[in-house]
Specification:
By secondary structure, the protein is mainly α. The protein has one domain (59-272): MetI-like (MetI-like fold, Orthogonal Bundle), CATH 1.10.3720.10. It has helices at 2-30, 47-54, 56-89, 93-108, 111-128, 137-162, 165-173, 178-206, 210-215, 223-231, 237-272. The two termini are 39 Å apart. The mean pLDDT is 83.
C-alpha cells in the first residue's frame, strides 16, 4: 500500500513539473533555433541571442528593468525593515492587526485592480500640478515598492519574533547605544529575512507586467512590456531568447536565496547545540 501511494505521489509531482516546465523547456530550446520557425527546430545556433544583444531597444529595456528592480529592492527593503520593527514594537494589538491587514492588501488584491488604481492616482496627482506626462520611472518605482513591501515585512517579522529581546536589552544595559545595539545584536539575527525579502522584491519587480503596463510611460519601458509589444507583431525567436534570459536570472536568484536560507538555518541549529 505504501509503495502504491509513493508511486502515485511521485507520478503526481512529475505530472505537475511536466505541465509547469515543459513549455519553458520548449521556449528555451527554440531560443537556440537556427531558423526563424516557431514549430520546427532547424539546429543549434546562438543567432537569436546575437540578434537580441544587437537590438538597442531590447538592451535599453533590459537596463531599465534591472535599474528599476534594484531600486525597488533597496527602497522596499529599507521601508519593510523599518515597518516590521515598528509592528514588532507596537503594544497596541488592534492597531498592529489593522496595519498588518492594510499592508497585506497589495498581495491579495488582483494585480490588474492595483495597476488601474495606481494609474488613476498618478494621473490625478499629475492633473493637480498641471502635468500630463507623469507616468515614467518614478511612478513605476512607487508602484513596484507598493506591491513588494509586504513581502519584505512578512519575511522580517518572523525573524524578529524569534529573536530574544533580552539580548538587545542587555547590550543597552552594558552602555551600547540603541542604533549600535541594533546593528551589532539584532541585525545579524534577522539578516536572512532581510535578504529573502530583498531578493523577492527584486524578482517580483523584474518580471512584473500587469502593474507595469498601467503605470509605465513612453519615456521608460521595461523588458516585460517590450516583450509584450513584440507579440503584437510576428513572433520571432529573439523574443524566446529574451524570455529565456529573464527566466535564467530569476532561477539563479531563487537558487541563491534558497542556499542562503539553508546555510543560515544550519548555522542556527549548530549555534543552538
Amino acid at each position: 500500500m505504501k509503495k502504491k501511494t509513493s508511486f502515485i505521489s511521485k507520478f503526481y509531482v512529475a505530472l505537475i513539473f511536466l505541465f509547469l516546465y515543459a513549455p519553458i523547456g520548449v521556449m528555451m530550446l527554440f531560443s537556440f533555433n537556427s531558423t526563424s520557425s516557431t514549430y520546427t527546430f532547424g539546429g543549434f545556433s546562438l543567432h537569436w541571442y546575437k540578434e537580441m544583444f544587437n537590438d538597442t531597444a531590447a538592451m535599453q529595456s533590459l537596463k531599465n528593468t534591472i535599474v528599476l528592480a534594484v531600486c525597488t529592492a533597496v527602497v522596499a527593503t529599507v521601508l519593510g525593515v523599518l515597518a516590521a520593527i515598528g509592528f514588532f514594537n507596537s503594544k497596541n494589538k488592534l492597531y498592529k492587526s489593522a496595519m498588518m491587514n492594510v499592508t497585506n492588501v497589495p498581495m491579495m488584491n488582483p494585480e490588474i485592480v492595483t495597476g488601474i488604481a495606481m494609474m488613476l492616482l498618478f494621473v490625478f496627482a499629475g492633473s493637480l500640478v498641471n502635468k500630463s506626462d507623469v507616468l515614467g520611472f518614478w511612478t513605476l518605482l512607487i508602484a513596484h515598492v507598493t506591491f513588494a513591501l509586504p513581502y519584505v515585512i512578512l519575511n522580517v517579522l518572523p525573524k524578529l519574533r524569534q529573536f530574544d529581546m533580552h539580548v538587545y536589552e542587555a547590550a543597552l544595559d552594558l552602555g551600547c547605544k540603541p542604533v549600535k545595539a541594533f546593528f551589532k545584536v539584532v541585525l545579524p539575527e534577522i539578516i536572512t529575512g532581510i535578504i529573502t525579502g530583498s531578493v523577492m522584491s527584486f524578482t517580483l519587480s523584474l518580471d512584473d507586467f500587469i502593474i507595469s503596463y498601467f503605470t509605465n510611460g513612453p519615456s521608460f519601458q521595461t523588458l516585460p512590456i517590450y516583450i509584450f509589444s513584440m507579440t503584437k507583431k510576428r513572433v520571432k525567436p529573439d523574443m524566446f531568447a529574451l524570455s529565456t534570459l529573464m527566466f535564467v536570472v530569476i532561477l539563479v536568484l531563487l537558487v541563491v536565496m534558497n542556499v542562503a536560507q539553508s546555510r543560515a538555518e544550519n548555522k542556527g541549529k549548530r549555534d543552538a547545540k
